[in-house]
Amino acid sequence: MIKQLLSKLPRKSSKSSANRDHGGNHAANSNASIGSRGSNGKFANSNSSSVAVNNSAPDASQNLGNKIHQGVNSKLNGDLGFSQYEGLPGFKDVPSSEKQNLFIRKLNLCCVVFDFTEPMKNLKEKEIKRQTLQDLVEYVTSVSGKFTETAVQEVMKMVSANLFRTFTPQPRENKVVDGVDLEEDEPSMDSAWPHLQIVYELFLRFVSSSETDAKLAKRYIDQSFILKLLDLFDSEDPREREYLKTILHRIYGKFMVHRPFIRKAINSIFYQFIFETEKYNGIAELLEILGSIINGFALPLKEEHKMFLVRAMIPLHKPRCLAMYHQPLSYCIAQFVEKDCKLADTVIRGLLKYWPIANSSKEVMFLNELEEVLEATQPPEFQRCMVPLFQQLARCLNSSHFQVAERALFLWNNDPIENLIRQNRKVILPIILPALEKNVGSHWNQAVRSLTLNVRKIFEDLDHELFNECLLKFHEDEKKEVEIRARREATWRRLEEIAATAAASDATAAAPCKALICSAAG
């Protein structure tokens, strides 16, 4: 009886039972996941360090590369779908045996590049990536044990994906007068800097780390990578160029095999800047790197290094925008002269070759640099170039721009330079005295006249007899110049009189002809 009643009750289908079982499993998994998050308390708060595909899928890490590429492609189409992003534990929350795998998974996730031109787009994902990058920086800083080849490869892949990009030129003209940018706009800042800064910091610590094997890493930090890194020096963001400067210097120090290539690549950038474009944002930073490199050159200097000075360093004085990078350039030049004093003659003649004609601020920079070079110049090298050098300084003394004249006169306040001048006064005084006398007599600026009198007195006290001889010759030359000028003016007056007479004669001869023509026409 009871069996008959039970048999009449409706039975639930097997499908419903399967659904119930599946739902129970899903709930259990979900609760387990929530429980694990609650236990460490890091995934939902600001200390969350990374994002990843749901760990409940056993093949998620295997398909990660495909998902990243899909994410990048969808980014290009303006539609980013990151629904598969979830929190991953920090490195402190996994066993040591799993940290290397977690490191690689986080690197893969950070290969996704976000669009920062729209600030309000993908805010959650951008913050998750920033936290992931921070976690990676901490791991690279504190890691104990050499990085494996896979880890090195993944680091380089992530760095390349984030850093190597095409710069968009600013839509404004480069207006430069006297080496000064007339448009006083703030430097252009990259909107993606919140991520770029951490990527640069990660790469800097990775290259500097003692756990990075140079022999292994040089397979990935190769010549192609270095060329792309050098291209980034044209960034308009000064913060980025500062990081690049430090990183390239670390690479130069760690990977000796790349040193000649790095120098040649920088040389090529200089050639293009000097002789083609005169536009490149990172010249100053590259010169700062070279200043340290030149300081470490072994003696005697190789011929390659001397040619680099002649063909690249000295011609860098030519562009109008010299003011943007003159300080590190001047330091590099001084380093060469200190390394090999025989190069002083080459450097001074190079400066005279590119000496500005109508750019007063640039002339002052040349005089500043010239003083540094002369301080390290020995008498034999000084004697080779002193005649053309002081011919140019004489022109500077008579400059109508008072700062140029003042700066040239200040050279006599430098003891090493004054000693060189004293030793060679018989050659220098006949060249310089006419300029001194002209300044005393006619320069408009009182400070320049006072300084000129001081220099004049130095020569007079040093060698009174020589000074009087030069002064006498100057007055004789002045008289001859007056006579020549008078003869020239008389010659021009005679020419004007002859021309006027000829014009009058032509007018007299032309009058009868004109009357004849009029009568014939009538």
From TrEMBL:
The B regulatory subunit might modulate substrate selectivity and catalytic activity, and also might direct the localization of the catalytic enzyme to a particular subcellular compartment. It comes from Salix viminalis. It comes from the Eukaryota. PANTHER family: SERINE/THREONINE PROTEIN PHOSPHATASE 2A PP2A REGULATORY SUBUNIT B, SERINE_THREONINE PROTEIN PHOSPHATASE 2A 59 KDA REGULATORY SUBUNIT B' ETA ISOFORM. Gene3D superfamilies: Leucine-rich Repeat Variant. GO terms for molecular function: protein phosphatase regulator activity. This is Serine/threonine protein phosphatase 2A regulatory subunit. Pfam families: B56 (PF01603). GO terms for biological process: signal transduction. Residues 1-70 are annotated as: Disordered. Residues 44-57 have a biased composition (Low complexity). It is found in: Cytoplasm. One of its GO terms (cellular component) is protein phosphatase type 2A complex. Belongs to the phosphatase 2A regulatory subunit B56 family. Keywords: Cytoplasm. Residues 27-43, 58-70 have a biased composition (Polar residues).
